[in-house]
Amino acid sequence: MKIIQSYWSHPDLSTRNQREFIKLNLNKYMTFALSVLRAKKFYENVELYTDKVGKNLLIDLLELPYTKVHVCLDDLTERYGEYNHVWALGKIYTYSLQDEPFFHVDNDAFICKSLADFHNVPLVAQSFEMDNGHHKYNLRKLKRQLSFFPEFLNTDSEMLKDGSQYNAGIIGGNDLDFFKNFCRESFQFVDKNLHILNDLQGENICFPCIFEQYLFSCFAHHQKREIKTLLPMPKTPLDNFNSLLDFHDRQNTLFIHLIGDHKKEAHNMCIVAETLWQEFPEYYNRIIKKYNTHEVTV
After folding, report:
1. Of 138, 134, 130, the residue nearest 241 (C-alpha)
2. CB atoms < 10 A from the CB of 159, how many?
3. Cα dihedral angle (210, 116, 8, 135), rounded to 10 degrees?
4. Rounded to an integer, what distance in angstroms lies between the CA atom of residue 135 and that of residue 152?
5. Are the beta carbons of 254 and 115 closer than 8 angstroms?
């Protein structure tokens, strides 16, 4: 089993030039570094799928210790660079390239133990997100605006019909045929709606949550595939969130994920920086030094 990570830089760079990007993202660098370094503690093979800018930042500049680097996401920028609401395509394209069992770990997720209990499972997701109002709102808004909506997303699953979905902070398994078919469905969903993506309306609307997590969830139900979760199934929408952010109970914590806006909270970023400094001081010092001295010609 190998760990894979992906970074498509275009969604970050599309609203600012490269120098501004580098100077504004110290927290992001700390998070990326801690994520890969934690993964390397438990897995020999940790591979990165990125574009030229991502390689320049994460490998050439920060020297993060990936086993292998695949520079393959620039094609996405050529095809989808002008569109909003497509940032998850880098992950989905990365899933589609896999030819052996894998776990994809988001760059804001930190493994605390081996995931060995799940190595032989066909489909694995981080957790199940019960709807707290946002998923239903998001699904309703998008159904009204999208010109193409896959029929299997009109699911008969009682678990999923309100927009509840499996979180893909960590996702993977050994059913590679399923992943290839899921990725094909996801790209088809996006491609058939490209002409309206820049006009989507709605506060905090999230099309990527639908074409990645919700489509994964509904497609598995449609294909009669079971999805195992790293965390226990929740009884309320908030059940899993406290455990996702528990940096202190390392003995009992399988992983940590700074989900959503939690990665923007100063308290959490201080804990990330402190953890990186304590566990991997060489990388902490390198990031601080490079951040303070690096110059970019735009």
Report:
1. 130
2. 15
3. 20
4. 17
5. yes
Q: Scanning the structure block, which residue is given the tokens 């709807």?
A: 131
CB atoms within 10 A of CB 116: 9
**Which two structure tokens, joined as six digits, stand for 66?**
């990936």
Instruction: Give, in order, the Cα–Cα distances in Å from 68 to each of 47, 113, 117.
Output: 5, 22, 25
- The b/e string for 117-141 (b: 16+ C-beta within 10 A; e otherwise) is ebeebbbbbbbbbbbeebbebbbeb
3-state secondary structure of 288: helix
**DSSP per residue, 40-98:** HHH-S-EEEEE-HHHHIIIIIIT----SEEEE--HHHHHHHTT-SS-TTHHHHHHHHT-
Cβ count near 177 (within 10 Å)? 9
Question: Which residue's structure tokens are 């589609």?
Answer: 96
Ordered DSSP codes for 254-279: SEEE--GGGGG-HHHHHHHHHHHHHH
Full-model pTM:
0.93
Domains and CATH numbers, the chain: 2-129+167-186+226-292 (3.90.550)
Q: What is the mean pLDDT, run by run of 10 residues, along the chain of 298 residues?
A: 96 63 74 97 97 94 96 95 92 98 97 96 96 88 94 95 95 98 98 93 85 98 97 81 66 82 76 94 93 56
Alpha helices, DSSP H, located in 151-246: 176-191, 207-208, 215-222, 241-244
Q: 3-class DSSP state for residue 171?
A: strand
For residue 20, the model assigns a pLDDT of: 53
DSSP β-bridge partners for residue 127: 167
pLDDT attached to residue 239: 72
SS3 content of the chain, % helix, strand, coil (to 5): 50, 15, 35
Q: Which residue has the tokens 């808004």?
A: 141
Give me the pLDDT at residue 298, please. 28
**Do residues 106 and 169 lie in contact, with contact meaning Cβ atoms separated by under 8 Å?**
yes
